[in-house]
Amino acid sequence: MNRIWWTWDLRMRWHWGFCRSHESFVANYKTLLDAAHRYSVEAVVIWGFLRDEHGGIDAAKEVREHAEKRGVRILPGFGVDDYGGAYYEGSSRYALDNYLTEHPEAQAVDKNGNPATHLWPPMDTKARKKACPSDGKVLDYYRESLEWLLREFDLDGFQIEQGDSGLCYCDRCRERQQITHLGERTSVSDGARRIGAVVKPFLEKQDDLLIVSETYLGMSKEELETIASALPDYPEGITLSWQLYDDGRMKVDEGVKSPRPHGVAALRTNSDVFYGVREDGKNIAEALRRSKAAGLDWTYIYGEHPDDRPVVRDNYEAWYRHSV
Ligand SMILES: [Zn+2]
């Protein structure tokens, strides 16, 4: 399998400072990139790749250049309707917050009828504005932002998500038929429709672009039935990511098959997102065995912790060994 380390900037512990400054951001990711070869990591997802707080474009370019030297791909997180657009935090026109300040009619609405926002990770200092998935004009803005991101950093891939923090409750969204998942946390149909619309022209221009797209679904028979009617909205060239293991919980059934020839087995362990790292080699091995049987050819695990701690190193080693 091909391997990815998945990271949030504010949870990074490879160096110091959780990426709260230019120096800390660059040092965290350079140290991670220097270690990537030990586990044959081919790509690193970075959410919060661009923030004014940690040096914006200049710092991101330093990380990108170091990745080039190490032969590792950088996949910045790109948020559609949530998670900040192309530029997570700052004064850039490619920060979704700034677009929504100028176009308040495109902001999503929460259950109480207020403009919707989302704060993540919990240690961030400010919530980001969310866009309404019924708004068509903001799609042009996403495509313009993505074009800028790929060109500015000479990228050959990115990760993309449409949001798992609740639906929009405006009249237009309430009237549309939707397939929801995790209660009303995420819309499976909006994810496919919105992401498909944003990335399609990019894949038509460049079919070897690596686009890792989160479904927020596991691979139970029920979940595969849930997404079946939405799947055609995802272009064939996209690489869907399936959350098949959550800190102690297997989320892939025996005997299921990936509905697409390529896909990522997301192993959600080894991170502070689940309140710290624990020894998890056996579960990692089992999750990968099932993922390979389901036909998946990529895997990611959280890569935020340095491997100088035995418990972390053992997790990375198990993940490497069982994904060969
Ligand atoms: Zn809406």
Structure summary:
With 324 residues, the chain is α/β, with parallel strands linked by helices. The protein has one domain: Glycosidases (TIM Barrel, Alpha-Beta Barrel).
Hetero ligands = zinc ion
CATH topology: TIM Barrel
Average the pLDDT over all residues and give the rounded result.
Answer: 97
CATH architectural arrangement: Alpha-Beta Barrel
How many domain regions? Answer: 1
In angstroms, what is the radius of gyration? 19 Å
Q: How does the helix and strand content classify structurally?
A: alpha/beta
The tally of helices reads 9
In which range does the helix fraction lie?
25-40%
Structure description:
The protein has 324 residues and is α/β, with parallel strands linked by helices. The protein has a single domain, classed as TIM Barrel. Helices cover 34% and strands 18% of the residues. The chain has helices at 22-35, 56-70, 96-102, 137-152, 171-175, 188-205, 221-228, 281-293, 310-322, and strands at residues 2-8, 43-47, 73-79, 117-118, 128-129, 157-161, 180-181, 186-187, 210-214, 239-246, 249-250, 263-268, 298-302. Strands 1-2-3-6-9-10-12-13 form an 8-stranded parallel β-barrel, surrounded by 4 helices. Strands 4-5 form a two-stranded antiparallel sheet. A two-stranded antiparallel ribbon has the order 7-8. α1 links the parallel β1 (2-8) and β2. The protein starts with a strand and ends with a helix. The structure holds zinc ion.
Please specify the SSE layout and strand pairing.
Blueprint: E1 2-8, H1 22-35, E2 43-47, H2 56-70, E3 73-79, H3 96-102, E4 117-118, E5 128-129, H4 137-152, E6 157-161, H5 171-175, E7 180-181, E8 186-187, H6 188-205, E9 210-214, H7 221-228, E10 239-246, E11 249-250, E12 263-268, H8 281-293, E13 298-302, H9 310-322
Parallel strand pairs: 1-2, 1-13, 2-3, 3-6, 6-9, 9-10, 10-12, 12-13
Antiparallel strand pairs: 4-5, 7-8, 10-11
Helix pairs in contact: 1-2, 4-6, 8-9
Residues 108, 132-134, 168, 170, 172-173 line the site of zinc ion (ZN).
